[in-house]
Give the backbone structure.
Amino acid sequence: MPPWLALGLVYLAAAVIAVPVARLLGLGSIIGYLAAGIAIGPFGLDVAGDAQAMLHIAEFGVVLMLFLVGLELEPRRLWALRQPIFGWGSVQLAGSTALLFGVGALAGAPWRLALVAALGLAMSSTAIGLAVLAERNLGATTAGQGVLSVALLQDIAAIPVLAVVPLLTFGAPHASDAGSGWLAAVRAFAVIAAIVFGGRLLLRPALRWIARSDTPEIFTAAALLLVVATAALMQSVGLSMALGAFLAGVLLAESEYRRELETDLEPFKGLLLGLFFIAVGIGIDFHVVRQHPGLIVLLVAGFLALKALVLWAMTRTMPIPLPERPVFIVLLAQGGEFGFVVFQAATQAGVIAGDAASVLTAAVTLSMAVTPLLLRAADRWWLQHLQAHRVDPSVHRLESQQSAPVIIAGFGRYGQIVGRLLFASGLTATVLDHDAEQVEGTRRFGWKVFYGDATRLDLLRTAGAAEARVLVVAIDDMEQNLALVDLAREHFPQLTIVARARNARHWTQLYKRGVRLIERETLDSALMSARSVLEALGFEPHRARTLAQRFRRHSIEQLIAMAPHVGDEARLVAISKDGRQQLEQLLAQERELAQRTRARE
């Protein structure tokens, strides 16, 4: 059997066994991947091969993840985040570095070792942080945006940090070194400018040309090429590969190919991220841990506590709701994969010894391994603390069984209108929303809203889904919306699902899942505006209302006719053209009938 095939079997088997067990125990998939890596690593079965080489390959999963995050951030939204990125991100990085350096120097460590350790330990794991946010559906929350902002600043800070490390050697830098540093900075800015301006001018036309080939696998290859090329360009000038992929994603966030790119790359991202976590587990050097157990435990506990102190102080002034603060603090207190790069660069430059780098690397790896466990512990302790002290009204989790005939999932503008009509009609409903700020705000107005992720089966059971009659799916995010529908149809078949559709594509996906009570969020408001336009042009009110109703009925009938042919563009275009002609003929007949009626009168 070829070695690569044997390694593939080992990694896949480890993941397939460990991850479902970890999820079954309620520990999350990340712990499962880490456990799989430890099991097959040099201190387990020792069948994993070269862990460092695998880690370099698996880092591409982090690159893909940042590209997909960028696809969700339009340039306007990214510009709106500039203050959190450069403000709070700088506070975290500078504050953590200063505090870690000060404590290290006071503990008697040489100042160069203390500074290198501070720079490396101040970084956080982008991979684990964003993966946990995705697993918990927290990416759109205030804490999730805060974690993303700090992670982006850390990626941006990669080049100055790596530039500073070699300058810590005993001799002063030569003039040529300074010149090469300026040259590296110029090259870095040139590459970023090329990605930004070249991307805006060339990416969409290139993707449009490739899409016209009507070959799905080539479009997937083009998507991978785009990510690899931008990552390689950034790495060539010493910048973060993930940052380059993120920029490429932002440039395509407003393009018509955004959803196709997400669909094509999502499986690669998941597999490579899993491989990354396995490689981290393999890379835990238990030999170093056995040699210096007390030092490493003290180091891990110490830098986690010091970074948590900085982050806790930040949350006191940041607009992060209390229920979300443990996630923000724990995810950013851990060490990160960039720390490995800092320690390696410092060792090669002769700034620190190899033994010190091994201890620091082991500490970072262990902090990443224990982060999911710390997060679960923080969840339980923090919730009990808030309940015992009644600190904030925004924490209203479902702790006891609810009973109401209706469950409303999502209480934004759409869900609130549904809820107001139900409550005004004398009906009760259990309302769930995953945005702590939204929960707090609506509670001030007297609504009984509970904080929680409606796509969790245990939460739905507690909300009374087994006894309820109707589930109103008003979640804004399309993927979460569809995930809730799938979950409800599988476990609570007695529920009548009333769903909100963002657009025609979303409507079709809901219809194909068997949902029949679907309303597009903008259809009726647009038709009301169209009626107003007709009336302003002289149409009688009842006539304008009739035309709008006919258009509405025709629109729904056309969507039903198109649903079986999703994916067949030619067929969909033909149905659309036929439907438009039928509508025009129908309305023309209506006009003739109205004219004849007026003539007889």
Residues 114 and 518 are 60 Å apart (CA to CA).
